[in-house]
């Protein structure tokens, strides 16, 4: 099952700008107009349509999987550092500020 839209408004706008600048790689999924200047970025994007997540965290009992290798590596790093950010409401701790901000929303 393929998802038609996998990007945000910001990513769709960026793709529109790339089309104007001659991006070479277009998404083959029907109804998706995303374009890319690099083939590797197109591959990651196509995996997002199909929910394919080939990059799995190597930490025992974690099992999280990712579309892109760099996201998996960034996640694995979280297992090695202490949380620096805490929610004032529930005291849950986070390693990254963006994760705390998402939690607060």
Automatic annotation (TrEMBL):
Q: Where is the composition biased (Basic residues)?
A: 13-22
> What GO molecular functions are on record for this protein?
DNA-binding transcription factor activity, RNA polymerase II-specific; RNA polymerase II cis-regulatory region sequence-specific DNA binding; zinc ion binding
Biological process terms in GO annotation: positive regulation of transcription by RNA polymerase II
Q: Which InterPro entries match?
A: GLI_C2H2-zinc-finger, Znf_C2H2_sf, Znf_C2H2_type
Q: Where is this region: Disordered?
A: 1-24
Please provide, in alphabetical order, the Gene Ontology terms of the cellular component aspect for this entry.
Answer: nucleus
* Residue ranges constituting the C2H2-type domain according to the UniProt record: 25-54, 55-84, 85-105
Keywords linked to the UniProt accession: Metal-binding, Repeat, Transcription, Transcription regulation, Zinc, Zinc-finger
Q: What is this protein called?
A: C2H2-type domain-containing protein
Organism of provenance: Mycena albidolilacea
Classification lineage: Eukaryota, Fungi, Dikarya, Basidiomycota, Agaricomycotina
